[in-house]
From TrEMBL:
<dbReference type="GO" id="GO:0046872">
    <property type="term" value="F:metal ion binding"/>
</dbReference>
<dbReference type="InterPro" id="IPR044861">
    <property type="entry name" value="IPNS-like_FE2OG_OXY"/>
</dbReference>
<dbReference type="InterPro" id="IPR050231">
    <property type="entry name" value="Iron_ascorbate_oxido_reductase"/>
</dbReference>
<dbReference type="Pfam" id="PF03171">
    <property type="entry name" value="2OG-FeII_Oxy"/>
</dbReference>
<keyword id="KW-0408">Iron</keyword>
<feature type="domain" description="Fe2OG dioxygenase">
    <location>
        <begin position="183"/>
        <end position="289"/>
    </location>
</feature>
<dbReference type="Pfam" id="PF14226">
    <property type="entry name" value="DIOX_N"/>
</dbReference>
<keyword id="KW-0479">Metal-binding</keyword>
<comment type="similarity">
    <text>Belongs to the iron/ascorbate-dependent oxidoreductase family.</text>
</comment>
<keyword id="KW-0560">Oxidoreductase</keyword>
<dbReference type="InterPro" id="IPR026992">
    <property type="entry name" value="DIOX_N"/>
</dbReference>
<protein>
    <submittedName>
        <fullName>Clavaminate synthase-like protein</fullName>
    </submittedName>
</protein>
<dbReference type="InterPro" id="IPR027443">
    <property type="entry name" value="IPNS-like_sf"/>
</dbReference>
<dbReference type="GO" id="GO:0016491">
    <property type="term" value="F:oxidoreductase activity"/>
</dbReference>
<dbReference type="InterPro" id="IPR005123">
    <property type="entry name" value="Oxoglu/Fe-dep_dioxygenase_dom"/>
</dbReference>
Amino acid sequence: MATQRNNTWPAFPGGEQVKIASLDTVDLGRLLTKNPIEIKKLLDVCMTHGFFYLDLQTCKEGLQLIDDEQGVYRFMEEYFAKPLETKMLDDRKSFLHGFKPVGVFTGTKESHKDAYETLKVAREEMDAKSELMPDSVKAKMELFDRFMNLSNLVNYTLLMCLSDALGLTGNARLEESHRRDQKSNTCLVMLHYPPTETDGTNIGHNKHTDIGSITLLFSEQWGLQVFDPETQDWKFIQPRPRGHATINVGDSLRFLSGKKLYSCLHRVIPPTADVQTEDRYSIAYFLRPENAAVLEDADGKVVAASKWHDDKYVMFGAPHQEQDKGTVLTGGMETILGRA
């Protein structure tokens, strides 16, 4: 059965009272017109929490993105309903391309694996209209090409406004590390969390900070949590009514900004007693810097953006004990926040 899309604030499953993060809302239309008040608001939230809602309803680009979001959801419902053996034909054993089955990475609990499957489409392959993309994606080429270009426009707009707010010029501007004609690991990721069983071995999406610069996220269902630096606890991100996206700052943007911007620690858990009771879908467009961009990581080490990307993906699959030994999984934010 198709998932019911929401046009209102959805209640938490079962009516339970839970802690909900208080997030600001930034207006995309005002950013596109370089409204100074909105740009300052953007900078403030990126320096303090690194997580916010983005209202897409105030400009034609945002309205088109809202329409295409629904088309991508419909595609996902059809694609992820296919038999596993069919989806595995799209598994390219890649961090950047194709299908990933459930259970490849570490879950939210000790000795558990993750509870989600994904389909990834790299921006470079979409730009090249590569034959290597899954046939199902190629069949919807117009939809995915437009959706990814609009997502890219949104994230670039945020980058340019942050550069303005930080007073950056020339090669120091953030967008200069994200040039479209340079190789990068920017990609679209479609995530599906199928229903799970009680006492199963797969739970959620483990705590982490995002690898890249800016994540544009669409999700109409509960499950996403962020670690609140002020109260030092986990809080749910309430799904907004249709017309909004959720934005978060990733490691690369934090590093490129000289650690002025805040890369938020987050995770996904089942909203009801460690059991995913319904199919959960989310769409993420990860804008990442050029592969050759130079970053200074949380430990002060100089690393290429491509290496940070690959090292972090390896860490996603490591046991909890190994993850807790270093700063890669959480971008060093646990050191700042205290163990989450």
